[in-house]
Amino acid sequence: MAELTIERLGTDGVGLARHEGKIIALPYTLPGELVRIEPGKTPRLVERLSDSPDRVAPPCRHFGTCGGCQLQHLSAESYCRFKEQLALDALARHGFANVPVEPARVSPPGSRRRATIELCRAGGRVLAGF
Q1: CB-based burial label for 58 (10 Å; 0-12, 13-18, 19+)
Q2: In the predicted model, is pLDDT for residue 113 greater than 80?
Q3: Are 28 and 65 in contact (CB under 8 A)?
Q4: What is the pTM of this model?
Q5: What is the DSSP letter of 106?
């Protein structure tokens, strides 16, 4: 067994920690949480030893079992900051640094929270769409 602190969220919303020089992904964990894992080829979360102050009770009773809504246990404010930063990082990687981004909005429980949006340059303009 090993105890680790979750350092950050990956782009897919999975908690990331370091163990023996490698980054490991631990679903349903949040930055700042202390966890106990079973090391191995595929490390396994055994127990969450402390909770992040950003942890909330997920609104859906199927959270964690259906495979959707990876971050229902993250507070709405923290979720918005996470999503805004993802957008800013993606824009910066493609040459759009310091671009104004509207604040993220949280979809109510029971509605769709995911969308894939593509950006492209066309005729000197930037187009965005699904």
Answers
A1: middle
A2: no
A3: no
A4: 0.78
A5: P
